[in-house]
Amino acid sequence: MCKECGCGLGGDVKVGGPVEDHGHDHVHHHDHDSGQHHEHEHEHGHGHDHGHGPQTVTLQRSLMEKNDRLAERNRGFFRAKKLLVLNVVSSPGSGKTTFIRETATKLAGRLRLGVIVGDLATDNDAARLRTAGIPVVQITTGTVCHLDADMVAKAAEQMDLDQLDVLVIENVGNLVCPADYDLGEDLRVVLLSVTEGEDKPLKYPPMFHSAHVAVVTKSDMASAAGFDRNLALANLGRASHHARIFELSAKTGEGMKAWLDFLAEQQAAVKSGRKSTKH
Amino acid sequence: MHEVSIMAEAVRMAVETANAAKASRVVKLHLRVGTLSAVVPEAMEFAFDVVCRDTIAEGATLELESVPAACWCAECQAEFECDSFISECPRCHNLSGELRRGRELEIASVEVS
């Protein structure tokens, strides 16, 4: 396990096709001790490096391909289920759980939400949501600082997805690592609370850049926190010029309507088979 | 921050490649890392030593190639090097968010023996 930030070594999922999937790049082993002459079955007419020393094998593969592949599988599965899937990310304490709880509560009777919650430890967040009558599956990641596509696939198996319209994945509170892990979501929603400082988008550009939606939370505390709204919006715009921005307080309900309407619109698009727009 | 899991995947691929080549050892890994990929090279090196332990990649050399980030300027029809996701074109001063390079996390090649 990572001693720096708590990242784990990943799960035990083994995905990985043959290395030689396109007619070149393959290498032959020369068993020099056997005394056999080199008689290879060369199926391909191009040259190989027959040097007897170390051989270099060109791979040119993404180190994220395993997760990306599993994420695409999730995406196809969720699409077939006509589910709108959100990946909600933020730093710890930005109000993800309250935001999700209020979203689910206010949409009750209109859309059914289920939640997958990721945390390093405790199921406190899951309990808070469960108390509000929301179906929840908890992923306790132990030492892993982000959710990955495989964890989400396993958690989704435990949930009755046919009873849902929207699946919300509450990621581990962390603005760094989850940025690189596609979970198969339709929309990545990043939260920025007014108490965290306006420069978060500049400090963590990969996460804010990758988000389809940015939500400024705890707007009821803006003046107490001395929140500079214009600066925050400018910084959000610098990190991502495409993200749809909402400003709200889940606690007071201020600004929630625009967000809920947007969600309903996105869900309708998924349901009708129109691909969910990215923002 | 998640360098360990990324390195673990790189070493897994390298070992898989060595096995496929019926080689007994991984000698060197060549990775390409974009300057905007959100990983820290020093942490990659640290993680490398840890994840190589007790594998046929133990003792292998790690070559980290840094890939400078570049944006595409539609106005100038040209790339320019940048250090963030949205940057100003040094020629026409328009903003561009079309990142062409800099997010790489790739295993370019593996040397086996």
Tell me what the structure shows.
Chain A has 279 residues and is of the alpha/beta class. Chain A has a domain at 83-271: 3-Layer(aba) Sandwich (Rossmann fold). Chain A is built from eight helices and eight strands, in the order E-H-E-H-E-H-E-H-E-E-H-H-E-H-E-H. Chain A has helices spanning 65-80, 96-107, 124-131, 149-157, 200-203, 205-210, 229-239, 256-271, and strands at residues 55-62, 84-89, 113-119, 136-140, 166-170, 187-193, 213-217, 244-247. In chain A, strand 3, helix 3 and strand 4 (136-140) form a beta-alpha-beta unit. Chain A is globular. Chain B is an alpha+beta fold. Chain B contains two helices and eight strands, in the order αβαβββββββ. Chain B has helices at residues 3-20, 41-52; strands at 26-34, 61-67, 70-73, 78-81, 87-88, 95-96, 99-101, 105-112. In chain B, strand 1, helix 2 and strand 2 (61-67) form a beta-alpha-beta unit. In chain B, helix 1 (3-20) crosses helix 2. The radius of gyration of chain B is 17 Å and the shape is elongated. Chain A binds chain B through residues 1-2, 4-5, 7-10, 16, 18-20, 26-29, 53-64, 66, 144-146, 174, 176-177, 179-180, 205-206, 209, 238-242, and chain B through 1-6, 8-10, 12-13, 16-17, 20-23, 27-28, 31, 36-38, 43, 46-47, 51, 84-86, 95, 97, 105-113.
